[in-house]
């Protein structure tokens, strides 16, 4: 885990949303936040990951049954550790179990502040473990942990996390309003909008870009950038685009990304009627 730099304040980021060996872009937004934050502080990442019994993959293939604790993404100091969980059954206790696994790491690091992303169970665990050690804890919501709370028990534990955290951050004002409804304090919460790396994302010459991609000057473009997964609305996007083509035959759909629905998108793009209307650069 390494030793802290005494010349800079130590911040410990606690989150399950961080790159994994088989998912290098997992939690990329938090990874980039950590990289930026390192200009101002010594940042250590603790990444608790629920690990499930091997049999659980029969019912939920996406569940993790093994964790490579030796892995760390480039340019950051990250420590991965697991805590045991059962599909659905252990959800009410995951926060408490995670907290017990997390506390020894915080006790060793003794950071100035803990910043946790993902409200339950990891945010709950971070607040509980931090306060037991007298360390202030900030929780940050990125979206789904407030918008898609799966059940009433989790909702109560999310609300408890928001009430007891020393400060609550969200990435939009709309998310902050949801947090306030669940118990976050107005004077101890704020929305900080997402930024971007301008070395990567920046305007360029529009016509030159269109020419490079084979898009005619008069064509209108719908651009999607993200993972090709159902939760992102990919099926609704393609259905809406297909309907719009009847009215706007020169419309283009440009999709940038990857994910399990990409083969279906490629199949749609290759059909005779739409082959020149869907672009996947």
Walk me through what this model shows:
The protein is of the alpha/beta class and 281 residues long. It is built from 9 helices and 10 strands. The strands form 2 sheets. The protein has a 7-stranded parallel β-sheet with strand order 3-2-1-4-5-6-7, sandwiched between helices. A 3-stranded parallel β-sheet has the order 8-9-10. Helix 2 packs across helix 3 (119-132) and helix 3 (119-132) runs parallel beside helix 5. The two termini are 40 Å apart. The model has no long low-confidence stretch (mean pLDDT 91).
Fraction of residues in helix: 25-40%
Instruction: Summarize model confidence as the mean pLDDT.
Output: 91
Alpha plus pi helix count: 9
Our Rg estimate from Cα atoms comes to 22 Å
Low-confidence stretches: none
Largest sheet report: 7 strands, parallel
Name the structural class. alpha/beta
Outline type: globular
Q: What series of H and E elements makes up the topology?
A: EHEEHEHEHHEHEHEHEHE
| DSSP strand tally | 10
């Amino acid at each position: 885990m390494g030793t802290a730099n005494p010349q800079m304040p130590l911040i410990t980021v606690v989150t399950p949303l961080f790159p994994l060996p088989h998912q290098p872009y997992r939690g990329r937004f938090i990874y980039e936040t950590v990289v930026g934050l390192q200009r101002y502080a010594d940042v250590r990442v603790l990444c608790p990951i629920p690990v499930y019994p091997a049999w659980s993959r029969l019912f939920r293939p996406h569940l993790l049954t093994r964790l490579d604790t030796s892995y760390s993404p480039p340019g950051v100091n990250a420590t991965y550790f697991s805590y045991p969980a059962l599909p659905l059954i252990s959800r009410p206790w995951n926060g408490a179990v995670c907290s017990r696994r997390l506390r020894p790491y915080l006790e060793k690091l003794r950071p100035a502040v803990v910043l946790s992303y993902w409200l339950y169970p990891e945010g709950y665990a971070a607040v509980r473990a931090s306060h037991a050690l007298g360390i202030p804890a900030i929780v940050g919501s990125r979206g789904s942990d407030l918008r898609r709370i799966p059940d009433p028990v989790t909702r109560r534990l999310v609300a408890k996390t928001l009430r007891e955290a020393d400060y609550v951050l969200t990435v939009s004002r709309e998310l902050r309003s949801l947090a306030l409804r669940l118990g976050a304090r107005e004077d101890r919460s704020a929305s900080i909008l997402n930024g971007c790396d301008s070395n990567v994302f920046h305007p360029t010459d529009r016509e030159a870009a269109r020419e490079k991609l084979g898009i005619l000057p008069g064509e209108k473009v719908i651009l999607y950038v993200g993972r090709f997964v159902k939760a992102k609305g990919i099926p609704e996007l393609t259905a809406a685009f297909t309907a719009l083509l009847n009215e706007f035959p020169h419309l283009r759909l440009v999709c940038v990304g990857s994910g399990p629905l990409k083969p279906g998108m490629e199949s749609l793009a290759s059909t005779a009627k739409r082959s020149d209307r869907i672009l996947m650069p």
